[in-house]
Amino acid sequence: MSRSKGHQPAWQDAVCGGLGAMGASATVHAIDLFKVRLQLQGELDPHALRLPLVDRLRMIWHAEGIRGMYRGLSASMLRQSLYSTTRFGLHGGIKNAIVSRDATLFSYLGVKVAVAMTAGAGGALLSSPADLVMVRMQADGRYPPELRRNYRNVFEGLARIAREDGLGGLWRGAMPNIKRAMIVTASQFVSYDKAKDVLSQHPTVWPFAVDHFATHFTASLMAGSHRYLSDVFSIGR
User: Fold this and answer.
1) Which CATH architecture has domain 10-174?
2) Which pTM value belongs to this model?
3) Residue 234: pLDDT above 50?
């Protein structure tokens, strides 16, 4: 028998959410790097903005190769292992605590949003140093050699930032990152819950049960589209 809704262990949410996010980030890392480069395009060379997207991608490939396309992957993995694990775990734990006290309380939109934003803030606060290193590593190839930081991996990046800027430097840009995470997590988690509820409440249109893989996949796909609306908040750190 499956567990009742709202009582899945928080550790299971954390582990599954973290592993899933790490796998997704590894898969799309090259695209994410390209996105960061596009957002920074024109900072050093305004004429580059006139180039077609395909030409910009070709320039990165020819200049840096496959290793350049996956620059910052170690930081991305550490970030997701902290960010997604924490936010899924916090969300599941807080949700379970609320449902155990009042099963109807979590049905309110305001409660869903508040829990999701709290979880997102916690995840971003913990993972902000790794996120800082990831963005710097992804952007590094955009600068001339004398201006590059050339972090070999996320741990060297963290050590150098702590040594050069102090421990507080590890959380540079943390507030925009936290605000972004709150918006992203609220939009994703609340949209996911709502999409799943809507799908399961229309059996004539959607024949799958609420716990069916197709329902989870479709609801996740619908919720995930909200993430990219707030990526602009993570640039320039």
Assistant:
1) Alpha/alpha barrel (1.50)
2) 0.80
3) no
